[in-house]
């Protein structure tokens, strides 16, 4: 059998190295088109990009801002899953992120309860008003939306749509390892990805096989602050105001956007709640996953282990 040959390109977007791999019989201009699509998502919807829709919403907090239909689509999905998670997923969590020293000002002490409660008052997705008819959005006064939990994955899905339009059904988009989208056909039946140990980045927990699926992960990784010799991760529970102590979440879904939202929400859940909510989601979508708790114990959904590759020794 003839060995499959591929070509790849890596570019830096969304503070990550994005790698796209396609069969080598396609022209390089396809990379230009796919990365161009992702760059437009970054420019128009990244809350850190000046004059993006979310940047304008943040600058006009408390007032209505004109947006487009995609901004509405993103916000409605975020609100849906914030409701699903009873608020432990919240895109207005930026005041707490700043408070814990994850933006520009570093901290040397753990925030006081008073500081946390003050930041929490500005953290509530329910204060975002969405007008899908007139394409207007108003966040609460003093609120700040952050798109980091989903936008990279949203861009991956947009590039995936174009791949399908071009008839490319054998490819991988790897967005910094935290959001991966795989495409398979009868020749290339599956892709193998390695899941890193959050405690030891040079070691893998296991390898997974994916067939036309997306893999999303949330973990502390290198994104933490160290206060009094203790590490605090960057994923903050908006309900408690404190960083989650879980170590990792990994999900296999049909699309990256929803997978990334869900992995962030699950990172703020206790293991029992994770397993309970996974069963609910399975009624309406394909989803499997695991949660590694603060003690390092891994909790699997019912069908996740079928994706783990068992190597013969």
Describe the structure.
- It is a single chain.
- The chain is globular.
- The strands form four sheets. The chain has an eight-stranded antiparallel sheet. Strands 3-5-4 form a three-stranded antiparallel sheet, covered by helices on one side. Strands 8-9 form a two-stranded antiparallel ribbon.
- The chain has eight helices and 15 strands.
- β11 and β12 form a beta hairpin.
- α3 packs parallel to α7 and α6 packs antiparallel against α7.
- With 313 residues, the chain is an alpha+beta fold.
- The chain folds into two domains: 189 residues, T-fold (Roll), CATH 3.10.520; 91 residues, T-fold, CATH 1.10.3980.
Write the layout of secondary structure elements.
Elements: E1 6-13, E2 16-23, H1 29-45, H2 53-59, E3 65-66, H3 69-84, H4 94-99, H5 113-120, E4 129-131, E5 136-138, H6 151-165, E6 171-175, E7 179-183, E8 191-197, E9 200-210, E10 214-219, E11 224-227, E12 230-233, E13 248-253, H7 256-267, H8 271-281, E14 287-292, E15 298-300
Antiparallel strand pairs: 1-2, 2-6, 3-5, 4-5, 6-7, 7-10, 8-9, 10-13, 11-12, 13-14, 14-15
